[in-house]
Amino acid sequence: MSAPAGIPPRPAAAPGGARAPAAAPRAPPCQNGPVQNQMQFPFGYGLHLENYSDSSGHYPQVPHEAVPSQLNNQYVADYHSACYSIPVQSVMTPSVGPSMLNTQQLYSGAPHPVESAGGLTQGAISSASHLHTSVPQSYSALSSHYSSSTSSSVASQGFPLSSGHYAMPTVSSAVYPNLSYPSMSVGSPYGQVFTSQSLPAVGQFKETNTFPDQSSTVPRTLQQQVPLGYNSTSWSTSDFQSAQDNFSRNNTGSLAKASNQINTDSSHPVSQNVQFTKPGVETSVVSSAVTSSIRTPVGDHLTEPASVPSNTQPSESLLQEGMQYGGYINNQASSAPAPLSSSSDDEEEDEEDEEAAIDSSSTTSSASPVINNYDALEGGGYPETNSAASSPAPTPQTSRTPKPFGYGYPTLQPGYQNATPSTSAMQPSNPGHHSGFQQYPQYPGVNQLSSTLGGLSLQHSQQPESLRPVNLTQDRNILPVSPVLAPVPNLNSDLRKLNCSPDSFRCTLTNIPQTQALLNKAKLPLGLLLHPFRDLTQLPVITSSTIVRCRSCRTYINPFVSFIDQRRWKCNLCYRVNDVPEEFMYNPLTRSYGEPHKRPEVQNSTVEFIASSDYMLRPPQPAVYLFVLDVSHNAVEAGYLTIVCQSLLENLDKLPGDSRTRIGFITFDSTVQFYNLQEGLSQPQMLIVSDIDDVFLPTPDSLLVNLHESKELIKDLLNALPNMFINTRETHSALGPALQAAFKLMSPTGGRISVFQSQLPSLGAGLLHSREDPNQRSSTKVVQHLGPATDFYKKLALDCSGQQTAVDLFLLSSQYSDLASLACMSKYSAGCIYYYPSFHHSHNPAQAEKLQKDLKRYLTRKIGFEAVMRIRCTKGLSIHTFHGNFFVRSTDLLSLANVNPDAGFAVQMSIEESLTDTSLVCFQTALLYTSSKGERRIRVHTLCLPVVTSLADVYAGADVQAAVCLLANMAVDRSVSSSLSDARDALVNAVVDSLSAYISTASNLQQSTLIAPNSLKLFPLYVLALLKQKAFRTGTSTRLDDRIYAMCQIKSQPLVHLMKMIHPNLYRIDRLTSEGAIHVNDRVVPQPPLQKLSAEKLTREGAFLMDCGSIFYIWIGKSCDNSFIKDVLGYPNYASVPQKLTQLPELDTLSSERARSFVSWLRDSRPLNPVLQVIKDESPAKTDFFQHLVEDRTEAAFSYYEFLLHIQQQICK
Description:
Elements: H1 135-142, H2 238-244, E1 273-277, H3 316-322, H4 345-350, H5 449-452, E2 469-471, H6 493-498, E3 505-507, E4 512-513, H7 516-522, E5 527-530, E6 539-543, E7 562-565, E8 568-570, E9 577-579, E10 586-587, E11 592-593, H8 600-603, E12 606-610, E13 624-630, H9 633-638, H10 640-651, E14 662-668, E15 672-676, E16 685-689, E17 705-706, H11 711-724, H12 735-746, E18 751-757, H13 792-802, E19 805-813, H14 819-822, H15 824-827, E20 833-837, H16 845-860, E21 864-873, E22 877-883, E23 887-888, E24 893-899, E25 905-911, E26 920-931, E27 936-948, H17 951-956, H18 960-977, H19 980-1001, E28 1011-1013, H20 1019-1027, H21 1040-1052, H22 1055-1062, E29 1065-1068, E30 1078-1080, E31 1083-1085, E32 1090-1091, E33 1103-1107, E34 1111-1116, H23 1122-1129, H24 1150-1164, E35 1171-1176, H25 1182-1186, H26 1200-1211
Parallel strand pairs: 4-27, 6-12, 13-14, 13-18, 18-19, 19-20, 34-35
Antiparallel strand pairs: 1-6, 2-28, 3-5, 5-25, 7-8, 8-9, 10-11, 12-27, 14-15, 14-17, 15-16, 21-24, 21-26, 22-25, 23-24, 26-27, 29-32, 29-33, 30-31, 33-34
Helix pairs in contact: 10-11, 10-16, 12-13, 18-19, 18-20, 19-20, 19-26, 23-24
Organism: Mauremys mutica (yellowpond turtle)
Membrane topology: Peripheral membrane protein
């Protein structure tokens, strides 16, 4: 093949980790506030104690396929009578064959251990024999998602092999390093899980502590009695959960206590800059000028005796008075005894800071040892010292045994009580109270809900709207006219204003149950949905030499901490009392001194800190981008190369980075081609390596070049590439060797690899064979090959993750490409996946346009490198399962080689200990990353929610969209680990269980009707829509790659985008008016009402827009008014509208202006620019539109009304 002009012909072929950080130590038990007499109120919302039941409720499996009526395919006039009619009762009593028995329940009346195989909550299914396995056995059963893969070993990186979905043991917060995790099964997608004892040491990551291998024997789980006639598996975790507290803490070894002896008499204010940035704009933040006494260098650590007492230890009397400082009653948060600063060797070993290697949270009188360990970046426990920051000793407290549910608990949760604060708490506790402190106001502490939520007593208020009973079978119009918003937590106005936006941080339950037993009764999932790096319109950026954090659990100071006085604050997660650093006394916004509670960190639940060098293991690396391009015959013929090169040329100057940004290119077919773009060359040089079995880098120093220095050569290459391979006849694809070369090239710095692939890899390492049999696609019982065929791509991803490199995949294929295997390269390296089925630049212009728009967003959006993320929560709660694209470095630390604004995550939670000592719980996520400009930053989100004791209150605070998204993530794991049919059954059982539990506990509801609280009225509809998505639906129309991509989207998309994919929004747009319109940037935006996703709402005389998230469909009825077609589409009549119209013309008509304004408003609400596709009534593309009408019957699924009848039938059994 001859090379084009400007590039010489092809020359002859060239011859030839990290240690898991210790979790935060368990704080000594503390009473969060003085014991107060409970005010007894009648049970709220018409519920009675005797109506609570603890039965698990088992229901037979839902058939995977309905038996639809024989309907013809011709549409009737109203599109309704043929597909939306109330069936006779016989339709809803399908026979259940033997294979449909033994349905796995999602929730049972007992607590759910992680290893159980009872439902989606566990992420995996095992046979009944597994119910009696010990804990070590269960770990291997947890994640055997890919039976054909083998566990990989990445000893070169020293990282434990884990996965993007890591089902973690529900151990208590004792000492994670003491747990010795066994090796997982050969089929595990995660390989082996190591602890800090067994992690191999690696290069730049330094081991500082060692722990003896200790194993704990946990009693076997009990098999719960199942009522006669049910074939459901259930479980009990009473023994398992009680055994968690017995894990040994007998760590040996010691960690030297260090303290920087410096002067604390500084009284100079501190200058600090706080800036508010807009999305996409990198903000340069001027370092704060700190005028203080001597700062001891980080490397200097002085050892102090463990027995030296603190000279400034506050007395108990002074502490109690300080709790009332400022005239506010910290009746719970501030009055509970806090753990004393411990200097024991055992505790110091357990408390390792994985974010900062320097003391950044306490006074200037002491500093902490620098722990040079990468896992020590982003925060766990902290080595404590006996310093002036020491807190009072905890008050002895007797252990309390949780009472059985329904007995001895307050009848109303604190969020709805109208409690009167005790007047005695308003007064100083003794005459030692210092009156010299300046009185200042503050927001209520995190545990003052009972005194600040007055006026919400159920005795004086009506039933909340969220608990209004809705008869689902009779109320046909449950869909609101406007998009569903996230429920607002039941907090007082001050806390509500300070709380984190639900777009960033959202919980499935905005009222947290006080106990696991109460959560089990509700039959609802508990978890978090995160969008941590999303684009923000306003973000407080803070730079300071001191980032204030709790010395015990390493929580960042936030709006929900309690200030005891000017010098001390109490952590809202572990309740430890910490000192306020001198620098924090100065407020840079008001330029005032002595008001730490007015600092921006305490006024904003979402902040971003500019981190110092203490949060780095190496200097920030430049932004490095490597593009790996398929140039085989299929790829070139599809025409994607022209679009990619053109997009790169247009956005080359917009790539995130600085003057150090580097870029490189690799192409491949049956060989691997490199490009020398070294500055000084007159033209790019192609270097070919034909030995794909032993690929190497021909000129390592000239393949990744500085973007600015070699820009002209890069442009020459991009202009030439589309024509270089235009006459190729090479049909093979050596993707694996190309990726191996890319890994070698990127390893020194890390960065981002963008892979463009158009077919099955057919040569070299990682070659794949077609596994899809179209004849088996119609099977509704078993969908095979949802897991990878080889572990090559997973191993490669783990290697890349260890070198801080993420792999993004663009799959442009017209035939099966085994996305189940290829997706592993992105899933385990924190990359992202783009999929363009049947891609062709001319035959499928819609896909070509989508690729172009996706690339523009992809190349220019914000990016974070070398990121780690940790989620912390109030003591008593635990996180046990993560969902998303990442690598689990330790039990609670996620490694993200790259993080982007479009990535979402989900986590499952459980309640390990009763939350009786608190009325509020908090969650905090910290994302530590390197910006494209080379700054180390920490983005922190904090969410606060009330604790409730009533089952009615749990239902009142249910977030149905968050619950459905979490269940969708769990169902994906169930599909891969067990089967698609099990995942579908568990989704249906989730609806049956939750509604059954609600009905059984409400005395005033008819048991024979299908009733749901208003908060859950959309639950059955959303689950039915989920069952009809490509990821979970049955029938003959879903290709395997399409199904896998839908599952990948569920696991990686944030909630706001995922919900549009599950349940699109339908609007009628041929009658847009200004009534109810909103004004956005001098533009009038119509607000048409939402329509049901049913053909019942369609009419041939109208035009409808369906918002599916990544694509807009505009369906034009055959008899649509010609004035709309002319004024909006620009064509005289319906017949003249082309079949492949992908945009609305700009016409000078009122109808055109309104339609374009509405579409633009929808587009502006999301980062990706959706493709618009106009569909005529008789167009073949109408199938894509009608498949989203989820309320109608499809080829193998119920209509919405049939589904409701089936749910009712299961509940009444």
